[in-house]
Amino acid sequence: MASKTPQSRARRSLAWLTAILVGLGIILGIGIATNNSNGVPLLALDLEGGTQMVLSPETSTGEAVTSDQMSQAVEIIRQRVDGSGVSEAEINTQGDNNVVVSMPGSPDEQTRQLIQASANMEFRSVITSGPFTAVPEEERTDVSDVPEPDAEPEHGSDPNWITPELYEEFQSTDCTASDANQIRENLPADEAIVACDFDTGSKYILGPLEISGDQIDSADHGMSQTPTGVSASSWVVNIAFEDEGAESFREVTQRLTGMNPPQNQFAILLDGQIVSAPASQAVITDGRAQISGDFNEESAAQLAEQLEYGALPISFEVESEQQISATLGQDQLFWGLVAGLIGLGLVAIYQFFQYRALGLVTLSSIVIMGLLTYLSIVLLGWSDNYRLSLAGIAGIIVSIGLTADSFIVYFERIKDEMRNGRPIESAVNYGWDRAKRTITVSKLVNVLAAVVLYFVAVGNVRGFAFTLGLTSIADLIVVFLFTHPVMKLLATTKFFAGGHPMSGMDPSLLGQKPLYQGAGRVREFRPDDAVAPKRGKKNTRSSKEAQKRQTIAERRAAERAEVLQTTTSSDQKPAREDS
Amino acid sequence: MSRLATWGNELYAGKKSYPFVQKWKTWFAVALILLAVAAGITALRGGFNMGIDFRGGSEFTVSGVENTDPVIGEEAVTEVISEAEATATNIAGGTIRVQTTELSDEQTLEVAENLQQGYNVTAEDVTSNFVGPTWGQAVSEQMFIGLIVFLVLVSLYLAIYFRTWKMSAAAIVGLLYVVMLTVGIYGAVGFEVTPPAIIGFLLILSYSLYDTVVVFDKIRENTQNLAEDRQRTFDELVNLAVNQTLVRSITTSVVGILPVGSILFIGAGLLGAGTLRDISLSIFVGIIVGTVATLFIQAPLYALFRKSEDDLQARDERILRRRGTDAEQEIENESTESAASQ
After folding, report:
1. Terminal Cα-to-Cα distance of chain A (whole angstroms)
2. Chain A positions in Cβ-Cβ contact with residue B251 (cut-off 8 Å)
3. pLDDT of A307-329, one tens digit each?
4. For range A65-73, the mean pLDDT
5. Which residues in chain B are closer than 8 Å to A353, comparing Cβ atoms?
6. Which 3 state secondary structure label does DSSP give B229?
7. Which domains occur in chain A, in start order?
8. Strand ranges in A200-330 using DSSP code E only, listed in sequence order
9. ipTM of the complex
10. Rounded to the nearest 10 degrees, what angle do helices B234-244 and B2-13 cross at?
């Protein structure tokens, strides 16, 4: 009796689902082929083992930290952690002012200190420069040949800072060595040092600390301006010092301006690494300097950010630290998966008990949802570095029940329609019309909950929220593109349409025999039918259409008759027939 | 199955009916008593058993331990800080948990080392968790904000969906009750409140709401054409909807509880305290409370909210008067009457 359209539509839905699955599979295949993904989800710290630290910024002055400074801080922590040789560390901001550092294993004392320490910004004058790489051994000046300084250094650019030992260090320092860009902490403030400038490929001997970063008032970047106020086409970084810094900077520029290169340069160091080494071109008396050079917008912005950051050195307080051993993580993962399988098994058994063959539809729907979820998680791991946590796994397991619920809503609706006397095929369609709204609304509530949880929650709650949202969406896809189309197709099979006892849609158990058996045949009603006690009443129910056309008096008379009948014998029901 | 099916059929037809709406006074009284008892016991216990994520402090889990003497664990802490208060408990076979409050981040690491030596395990077996005092407060605040934001959004969403604030209000009040009772049970039993448990609470909200949406959908459907139905009062229509969705409500809870129960069993039984146990425990309690609350609180509450509407009152009176005058029709015969209705 079904026209071709609903069935072909059902097939089209299934084709769409297949397309989605195959599409995701192909993307994953590409990921595996290009070595970007290994086909399994990335695991979060609590499953993989490792250390997670939640840090909050602290400033020595108690000033609030701006989001720019935060992102700069994160960038600096990242450089420090990478520089310390810890691989695969992940550093993120969480909320407005927390930094989460996750890394495998447990960090050593030095790494921990590096992570927490505030960045150290210094201004030092250049005393001399040299080649980027180490001077070959045979060309070096022997230590004994370097003269000891003949007088106390008078200022920051005085070559008298250079001791033979420092000069030896200067000659042997190779800025291309892998550890050259490491963080250098606690540089001596009153001694000359050797530093590399990676941007220009130079190596310098720098004088003692002239100005420290906290003397910077502000920094920004912009286009340079000609004296008439017209924008020129090059990027510059503007820097303003606080009073004390302005005075020091005036002294420095006064000395440097007019000296011979490279002694007219000063270096700005962050964590012991040179971020810029401009030459002083004029005496700056008001503490407002402009650094020009080979900037593009990005590099100018970066320097300005670094200067701003240096202006407010942020150190980090450990708010929470978790160290989880890899073995414990593996254990949790294993048992989490076992729990999931047991849960799935129990749901399957219960569904078979209640819905018989329809339980298979539920089970396969859940399996497809699982497949969709799995693919999404692996792909999100690839694209967004999403990591599955234990809470996330719990979310997925819990979603088995929530997903099965959509099917229960749907099946119960179909049953309701069959109780109303509809044959299975139209019951599937009518039931769907009503169920889909309920399912969609309920799932959207879940998605809403997931989104709220994700955005307000901290820590591992997010992992749970994420999988909850993901599985809710996967569930909707499965219900619309799999469960319903499959039900439509199944309803046309003999097994289901014929109400086989194992089909789970046995009309006799619903107190109903399909009145309309297709092809225009209408079932004869027989009062002595074995299922009469249950069916009779539904029969009256199904005749409500006819009933509506009765007058009130007729209807009430019929009701009274019925009441009398039921009170005399509950097995005997008034024989009613659909007209 | 056949018995369940018969039962389902009878509920659907209204032949069998449980007075969820009619006896609302009883249910509400029971609900309030339960809440009061839970709150009372919680208060007697001295409040909630908050986990270290909220209190701040350090927690260590040592697994693969052969000698599960808690003294070793407590000494590992007192060696570092002599006046620190430490409690060590054997939470699962071969797993020891040590909690203490007064350690700094660095001291936490020292204690972890001591534990490793004391229990003669490798560093791999010691998990440490340090939570600074302010962090716990931040976590609690976030959770609270999450709850408020969720409730506000859900109220709006439901009001738009049901197009009546009364349904939305009934759903939200019921929701609040579910959370309060679940939290109360948590407090009364003394379960530890941890962030995963809070995740569970928030999930309960969405789960319980799901349940409510399904039942309310049916209520709305049943009460859509009030003018056409001359047999049932408004209360009875609402009650019919609750009964008609009863099988689904029960099935849903069972299906919801099965996977949660398996996580709970494995989480609590094999792994001891942890994320899995805490999440599943709160959801387990919440699903049961949520389902029951939908039946006994939210639906009757909605009927109650609409009781004051004049046209509904007039309609109910008309129906009841007709029943009274009709000699053959007894009010108890409600079920039979329903056969011809809708």
Report:
1. 20
2. 354, 408, 412
3. 877 776 777 888 888 888 777 77
4. 76
5. 1
6. coil
7. 45-116 (3.30.70.3400), 121-316 (3.30.1360.200), 355-524 (no CATH), 527-567 (no CATH)
8. 202-212, 216-225, 231-241, 266-270, 273-276, 288-292, 314-324
9. 0.80
10. 160
Mean pLDDT of all residues in A183-191 = 75
pLDDT tens digits for A228-285? Answer: 666 667 888 888 888 888 888 888 888 888 788 788 888 888 877 888 888 888 888 8
List of residues 6+ apart from A44 with CB closer than 8 A: A102, A387, A388, A389, A390, A392, A460, A463
Residue-wise pLDDT tens digits, A528-558: 333 333 334 444 444 444 444 445 555 555 5
Q: Is B224 exposed, middle or buried (0-12, 13-18, 19+ CB in 10 A)?
A: exposed
CB pair distance less than 8 Å for A317 and B132: yes
Say how far apart CA A295 and CA A302 lie, in whole Å: 10
Higher pLDDT, A372 or A44: A372
Name the residue among B124, B206, B209 with its Cβ closest to that of A325: B124
Residue A181 or residue B226, greater confidence? B226
Q: What angle do CA A185, A186, A192 make, to 5 degrees?
A: 110
pTM over 0.95? The answer is: no
Handedness of CA B1, B4, B10, B11 (dihedral sign): negative
Strand (E) or helix (H) holding B75:
helix B70-80
Residue appearing with tokens 């606690």: A186
C-alpha distances in Å from residue B336, one per residue of A541, A546, A548, B317, B329 = 11, 18, 17, 20, 10
Which of A519-523, A562-566, B106-110, B236-240 has the highest average model confidence (pLDDT)?
B236-240
Q: Chain A, 32-91: which have a CB under 8 Å from a chain B CB?
A: 46, 49, 54, 56
- Best mutation target among B129, B179, B214, B255 (most A Cβ atoms within 10 Å) is B255
> Mean pLDDT, to the nearest integer, of A204-215?
86
Burial class (CB in 10 A: 0-12, 13-18, 19+), B132: buried
Inter-chain CB proximity B339 and A456 less than 8 Å = no
Q: Which residues contact A540 (CB under 8 A, 6 or more apart)?
A: A547, A562, A573, A574, A576, B339, B340
The answer to whether residues A423 and B278 touch, using CB atoms and an 8 Å cutoff, is: no
Nearest CA distance, B44 vs chain A (angstrom): 30
Output the pLDDT for position A40. 86
Buried b (16+ CB within 10 A) or exposed e, A430-468: bbbebbbebbebbbbbbbbbbbbbbebbbbbbbbbbbbb
Query: How high is the pLDDT of residue B34?
Result: 93
Of A123-132, A556-565, B36-45, the least confident: A556-565
Q: What is the pLDDT of residue A227?
A: 62
Q: Do A322 and B198 touch (CB under 8 A)?
A: no
- Tell me which chain A residue has its CA closest to the CA of residue B195: A461
Contact B340 A547 (CB under 8 A): yes
**Closest partner residue to A449 among B206, B257, B261, by Cβ?**
B206
pLDDT at A232: 66
pLDDT confidence tier of residue B40, bands split at 50, 70 and 90: very high
Q: Which residues of A touch B279 (CB under 8 A)?
A: 391, 394, 398, 464
Band of pLDDT at residue A512, cut at 50, 70 and 90: low
Contact A106 B61 (CB under 8 A): no
Q: Which of B116, B148, B206 to mutate to test the interface with A (most CBs of A within 10 A)?
A: B206
The size of chain A, in residues, is 579
The answer to whether B62 and B73 have CB atoms below 8 angstroms apart is: yes
| pLDDT value, residue A505 | 65
Give residue for tokens 């400074």: A69
